[in-house]
Specification:
The complex is a heterodimer of chains A (325) and B (423). Chain A has 325 residues and is an alpha/beta fold. Chain A has nine helices and 13 strands. The chains are: A alpha/beta (325), B mainly alpha (423).
Chain lengths: 325, 423
């Protein structure tokens, strides 16, 4: 059975600023034909960080990832991986799960994985041993002699993730890793990704699932039309799109707005009270004022939109995106 | 820390080439299609000889000497015919009738009393049974032998000396001696062209079969979407170089087995075609043939790898490669131009210096030229080697730029940009 930690389990917050950048992208441009697919993109990914790479279809995510992997070269700008230019020097430290999954159809999956490991600098015996261990751990022990064409979609995807982490890479780049998976297998793969991050690997995860991005990612990078739209930690990005509202759950909470100097409007739905703050007032001001009442506060949280809403607003051109671009 | 060993330098490059080459070699030689294709020629040759042995005329029952080699004659004419045992038996008509009835002989000749006034004689033979080509050949030989005997018998009645009579019947026995001591029979002369021509065909076929494996490998990895994982693990140049080497080694394995089969078959063929056994291959010619094969394969390998990367699917890739296949066999179409052995003609030089027709042309030249044409060999080797290097570099660029375009045919401009390293 899998031993990977649950993605919903409590994890210790880490100081992202302290991590050394595994990937640095500065002012990168890439043009195909007459289209600038990537336009002056800059970002960093640190060791021990899981960065969500978000954006609509055709935004330039895959092109950017391929440039970091040195599969294609940028027209302008600079990319550094582990402090040097991307390429053969670092490929053995990288794991890549492309959106278009691929395994040899007529080759046993354990042989395919052994070959992939050997290409990334592992000895054949080491690669085979590790492939066997991971196949067992991911519940594919009985299927390791099956050919690629004989695997179900879920098995295929798990085998692909094994190929990605086979060499315990220092940088993982995964493109839509949970697409088409049932909740059990998706949870298993999420656990594996978090485990990789927690052991210090830098992880870039492209996803269209904002729930996954909000739950799993330490930071997000949203691009649209090849340009950076949002970039920052998940709380910072959500906070930037907050309407200045605070949601409070508890008992005996006064609902008259004139009881608060920091509040302009109050609404209550299903036991949750939503306070809209005045301009210049902060959540801290409201907290102090609530403390001076008889209210018993059980939950106090900034009422920020979730990432799905942030995504839609940012792509639609909401000016608040400028704050975290 | 990653488990992957750090890379860099020529060692890392060569290791990657080796990993890809070894894996592609093993995967190819284990394919059923490869095993079948490789064994087809030796098995075909074995079947040919087996069939020929089965169809060879079996000796008849009774006295094989009399039945197959001797002429049995019943002489009713006035001319004396002396028996010449065991080749000529003169017996009575009743004995002859008995022998043919009990199957001891298959036929006998009757020289009637009207001979030699009338040229007609009779051959009495058994009837029925299947068509017997061996019997037909034997009877033809017996007819000729009997004619010679009767000619001698007639001459002896005219007072010509026996030794002169023999010379009248068989005036000459031409023996041809070559100035260089080589084989001189017509069969050997035919063989001296057919065998190298066959080898040329074999080499060209092999280049294409091997390049076909490369094409198949690239398009398969593209269609399976494995290529993106490969390119994230290995730069395009060692990946392509490994494929070309691994699949080239598979092709060489196939050719080695075929050549071994043909070399084993030559002694068997030479028992039927005189002079074949004397065709000892010249080591220099063999070394040059190998050089043309390797360079030819590398050049076509580079072209075919690029075709595999550019083509949207396997079917299109086969169509594109068919065009180059036609270009490669053009020298075989003009093979009559090589028959004279004069390899200094403009046509031969042109075909030898166009890289994609060089391998087949030069293999033919080596087969027919009385001596190795050094200037042509040097010029063609330099031209082919230069083309191979440029084609490999250009192909690696096209390979890298177009391999990830699944199901899309890249524009000519994009291909040109890739070749010129502008993308």
């Amino acid at each position: 059975m899998p031993e990977a930690p649950s993605p919903t389990s409590e994890r210790v917050p880490r100081t992202l600023e302290g991590g050394e950048p595994a990937v640095v992208v500065r002012g990168v441009w890439k043009r195909f034909g007459r289209t600038d697919v990537v336009q002056g993109l800059s970002f960093e990914v640190r060791r021990g960080e899981l960065m969500g790479f978000l954006g609509p279809n055709g935004a330039g995510k895959t092109t950017t990832m391929r440039m970091v992997l040195d599969i294609i070269r940028p027209d302008r700008g600079e990319i550094r991986v582990f402090g040097g230019p991307p390429g053969v020097e670092h490929q053995s430290r990288v794991g890549y799960l492309p959106e278009d999954r691929g395994l040899y159809r007529d080759v046993p999956v354990v042989d395919t994985l052994t070959y992939f490991g050997a290409l990334r600098g592992m000895s054949t015996s080491q690669s085979r041993r590790r492939a066997t261990d991971l196949l067992e751990r991911m519940g594919l022990g009985d299927s390791m002699r099956k050919r690629g064409a004989e695997l179900s979609r879920g098995m295929h995807q798990k085998a692909q993730l094994i190929a990605t982490i086979l060499n315990e890479p220092d940088l993982l780049i995964v493109d839509e890793p949970f697409q088409g998976l049932d909740p059990v297998n998706a949870d298993l793969l999420k656990g594996v990704l978090l485990e990789q991050r927690d052991r210090g690997a830098a992880v870039i995860m492209s996803t269209h699932d904002m729930g996954d991005a909000q739950t799993l990612c330490d930071r997000i990078l949203l691009i649209d039309g090849g340009r950076r739209v949002l970039y920052g930690t998940v709380p910072d990005v959500r906070g930037a799109f907050s309407d200045g509202a605070v949601e409070v759950t508890g008992r005996d909470i006064p609902l008259e707005p004139d009881r608060y100097r920091s509040v302009s409007h109050i609404s209550a739905v299903d036991g949750r009270v939503r306070f809209l703050l005045r301009d210049g007032a902060s959540a801290r001001d409201l907290f102090r004022e609530l403390a001076g009442t008889d209210a018993v506060v059980e939950r106090f949280s900034l009422d920020a939109p979730d990432l799905s809403e942030v995504f839609l607003r940012a792509v639609a051109g909401d000016p608040r995106a400028e704050r975290v671009a | 820390m990653s488990l992957g060993a750090p890379r860099g330098g020529p060692g890392g490059f060569l290791r990657l080439v080796g990993v890809v080459a070894w894996r592609d070699y093993l995967r190819t030689v284990r394919r059923r299609g490869f095993i079948f294709g490789t064994l087809l020629l030796p098995l075909g040759l074995a079947a040919l000889f087996g069939l020929s042995a089965l169809l060879a005329p079996a000796p008849s029952g009774g006295d094989p000497g009399v039945a197959t080699a001797s002429v049995v004659v019943v002489n009713e004419s006035a001319v004396a015919i002396r028996p010449a045992e065991p080749l000529l038996h003169v017996i009575g008509s009743e004995e002859a009738a008995t022998l043919i009835r009990d199957g001891s002989i298959a036929e006998y000749y009757v020289i009637p009393a009207s001979w030699p006034a009338s040229p007609e004689i009779q051959r009495v033979e058994t009837t029925g049974g299947p068509l017997d080509l061996g019997a037909m050949q034997r009877r033809e030989a017996q007819d000729e032998a009997l004619a010679a005997v009767l000619r001698s018998a007639l001459l002896s009645t005219t007072g010509v000396r026996p030794d002169v009579a023999v010379r009248i019947v068989a005036p000459v026995d031409v023996r041809v001696i070559a100035i260089d001591g080589g084989p001189t029979s017509e069969a050997a002369a035919v063989a001296s062209f057919l065998v190298p021509f066959g080898f040329t065909l074999l080499f060209v076929m092999s280049i294409f079969i091997t390049s076909g494996y490369l094409l198949q490998s690239v398009t398969e990895e593209k269609e399976n979407r494995v290529v993106e994982i490969l390119l994230s693990s290995v730069p395009s140049l060692p990946l392509m170089a490994g494929k070309i080497l691994g699949l080239g080694a598979a092709g060489l394995t196939q050719v080695a087995i075929w050549v071994a089969a043909v070399l084993l078959a030559i002694p068997l063929i030479s028992s039927q075609i005189g002079g074949l056994g004397d065709l000892a291959p010249d080591p220099t010619v063999l070394a040059l043939a190998l050089a043309y094969f390797v360079l030819g394969y590398l050049a076509y390998g580079a072209i075919f790898a690029a075709i595999g990367a550019v083509a949207p699917g396997n079917r299109e890739a086969q169509q594109y490669s068919g065009f180059f296949g036609f270009l490669a066999v053009i020298p075989l179409i003009f093979s009559s131009a090589f028959l004279s052995g004069d390899v200094s003609t403009p046509l031969v030089w042109t075909l030898a210096l166009i890289p994609i027709t060089t391998p087949a042309t030069m293999l033919l030249v080596l087969a027919v030229a009385p001596t190795i044409p050094v200037p042509l060999v040097v010029a063609s080797l330099v031209s082919l080697a230069l083309f191979t290097v440029l084609a490999t570099i250009a192909s690696a660029r096209v390979f890298r730029a177009t391999l990830l375009l699944y199901g899309v045919r890249p524009s000519l401009r994009r291909i040109v940009d890739a070749v010129l390293a502008r993308s």
